Amino acid sequence: MKTSFLFCTAILAFCSACAPKVIAPDGDSQYRSFAPDGIPFVVADSMWQADQHGNHRAVVQVDGAQGRNAVQVRLPWRRPDLRPETKKVVVVDARSGKEIRNVRVSDFSAESATVAFEPVAGDGLYYVYYLPYKYRKGWDDARYGNPWNDYLPPVYEADENWKNSLSGEIRSAKVVRFESRSRFDAFTPMGLAATRRETDSLKNVYAGNPVLFPEDRAFPIRLTNSLPARWVKTGAKKGFSGVAQRNEYYTWQIGVWAARQDISEVHLAFSDLSNGKEIIPKENITCFNQEGINWDGKPIKFTVNVPQGKVQALWCGVQIPETAAPGVYKGNVTFTCVGGDTRNIPLEIRVTKEVLADKGDNDLWRHARLRWLNSTIGMDDNPVKPYTAMQLDGRTITATDKTLQVDGNGLPASIRVNDREVLAAPFRFVVTTDRGPVAFEAQNVSLQKKADGLVTWTASCRREGISFESEASIEYDGYVHYNLKVSSSSPLPVKDVRLETDYTPYASEYFMGTGFSGGFRPASYRWDWKGPWDSYWMGNAKAGLHVEYRGGSYHGPLLNDYKPAPPEAWANGGRGTVSVSGNKGEKALVVASTGADTLRAEPSQYEFDLLITPVKPVDSRKHFSERYYHAPHTGFDKAAEEGANIINIHHAQKLNPVINYPFIVQDSLKAFIRHEHEFGRKVKLYYTIRELTNYATEIYALKSLNHEIFAPGVGYGLPWHCEHLIDDYRPAWYTELPQETADAALVLTGFSRWINYYLEGLRWMFQNYDLDGIYMDDVSFDRPVMKRMRKIMEQYHPGALIDLHSNTGYSVGPANQYTGFFPYVDRLWFGESFRYNQMRPDEWFVTFSGIPFGQMSEMLQDGGNRFLGMVYGATARHSYGAYSPAPVWALWDSFGIGEARMLGYWDEDCPVRTSDPEVKATAYVKADQVLVSVGNFSNQDKTVTLSFDWNALGMRPDQVTLEKPEVADFQTAGSLQLQAPIPVKSKEGCLLLLKRK
User: Fold this and answer.
1) Model pLDDT for residues 273-291, shown as the tens digit of each residue
2) Domains of the chain listed by start with CATH number
3) Buried b vs exposed e over 783-802: b needs ≥16 C-beta within 10 Å?
4) Total-model pTM
């Protein structure tokens, strides 16, 4: 008995070992040889010169050429690109590499063409390049100007006598194969188009509408205007079967071809997947094209319509439980639509015993990361460092170091920060009718602390036939949101709806926004909504308020890109205004006025946001200790010898070659990060949202989401775009890469589920790279995303850093547009288009320095102005500008600036002043010495004297010396008398040391 049992066990083990292993398509599958016409399409063994040739060629064998002046070859190239007749065909002798002049192209179409040419080298191989272009060098931006077209035009210089000799029969050459320059350039079986005859044949075979093609994720559906050649071979399968590992997020596609007529409201419904008693619930399955979780955490649904003749990919995904029993899980997908047939698609997934620890995220070809689109990572109502739990005491709310007291109507009665009052009077909301003003004067406000990071309240009243309702909330960082609803049971014409805000003299010294560039507040200013701005900031160094009028089409930065429509409730068809009034040194009044309108039973909603500033204390010690290098990583070790301790690895660099998709180069990046960590240095990556590289593995899946993520456009751009994405996209940033390759990005929409993917990508990099933070280069999201980002950082890499860069030409006043980001970033880099030598001190302070908001900044454009920058504690970055900051860094270290208290001219406690209002001084104060930065902002050379507040400094004038230390490329050494005149050249300055003897 025992012997028989052992024998049977051995036989079973032997049979299991001999059983064929389940082979599923993988990341290599789509690049294998494919021969739809008996001619293989392959990836070349090596890359040829792209310039003047392009990325695709036919390899042609010529035999029997002796005595012949022409041969011809038919090329069934199955091109997917639009306008193929506008592109030249180039023939080259394979041995010499020389282009052949005598060429004629006939019977030209997207499907095929006949090419006759003179076989100048006799028998042998010739290359026919059929999508040649001029390779674009350097970098550029395809968003602006005319559409790009780098293809060579179909201009031929064939000899007339040669052309006239082609009237007789021409010997045929043979196409050996079609080659793509690289895998990235390969059309693949999914990018080669079916012919018209093949399409008609399939249409006849499958009588229904639409025709469905279940497809593996290893073969992403690319084409929308035609069928892929692969489907001619495979046909339309009745069901889908795939192979997944346990814990894998498994994806697949259903291709929908509206063969006979338009269809609309396409929908997939999933059943449970069962394997005996084992169940994978249908709740684990989704179709990304029809539903998901939006960037704001709310469920979202999409309507999918497919015009006649078009192909639509439906990307689906299922989470395979880690505990799933191996075996075959079966279920069904029900396809419904308007204008077409209902279909039942059998679904079968074989789950193997292997466990995929990361759900498939590390294998990009699996498309497992598509689930990131529906992530809610970082979403909660709890505070994140450095903020603490909020306190509610009656009508008074404390958010870390900020206090908001609400009135009986829920509007702000008092706002205090740094022991300074922002408001000179409570907010007022007033409706003016023919009978006069009717104010919102409720006394029934009800407040509730919902979480440590969120307090909400409501209030309402009815006066003179007008209903007022207020819904509001404040978060832990001092962000306040209001939605004021106003209605009338019957139509009521009103003269005006006004929100009035009074600011104290201190909190209204500076102003920025609503079209005003920034600086000292003007005594009178008026904005009429003719432009993209929707917000302003009013304040000073220690107290202020950012106000944004909500309800427009877009509320992020990058105003020049998105050109948002104004909030209709406030702009009111051009009748609305925002006005500022108040003499210098007196309180200021800001009135947002709608002008004439009509109230109805449906409430008009007047939304606005507030952010109390500064959002956090300025941390000058941290700022001076973190010194950035922003150049190729190979120079970081040298820069570190001069004080740099953080590197930002930009895109278009060897370790981060493509934009906003730092997932391609991994091993060498990890090794570099480990190396730098050994020396206590930090590594950050360029990672932002605005555009996305064409190297993103998920690009075809994302494009199938129909403008949710990629902005619509006329197409064109880089040849790669034209050959693979075809049309309906908007090209963006372009960067030359090695081997005549290129990174060619696409414009992203402002707000989409790509934000969720982006945030999961951040988490993934912290876990897999041990990254120290990111560098953000002008982004198209807003404050809620930044909150999530900072929470992810604190969870997965506490203390990780974010620095924010902006071009004022993009965001048209980035300090105002990015104010909502400031609680969560670590420093600013403002930025391109900043004209430092043309800016007044008040402009520097408000629009550049970051100081009124609790931030500090660095200079960029043309290296900045190293003399004036130090007044605000700013230098340029190492290796980014004509002058290195290293000599100034060395002075910081010898002085010990990290231990000093920074007191600028804007602070009433600043203990050092100059005798000229156009020459400013900032003091970095320690117990025994003071570093003084003096900057002349005027257009004339100046001579000034310094005055010192000796009591504040705790020093006596007879016990100190004043010296000018040696700083390379900045100043020479010298000694000064305390009251001696100091010459300061225009737009320059000096650094002085006041020391105890």
Assistant:
1) 999 999 999 999 999 999 9
2) 29-180 (no CATH), 196-374 (2.60.40.10), 391-613 (2.70.98.10), 900-997 (2.60.40.1180)
3) bbbbbbbbbbbeebbeebbb
4) 0.95
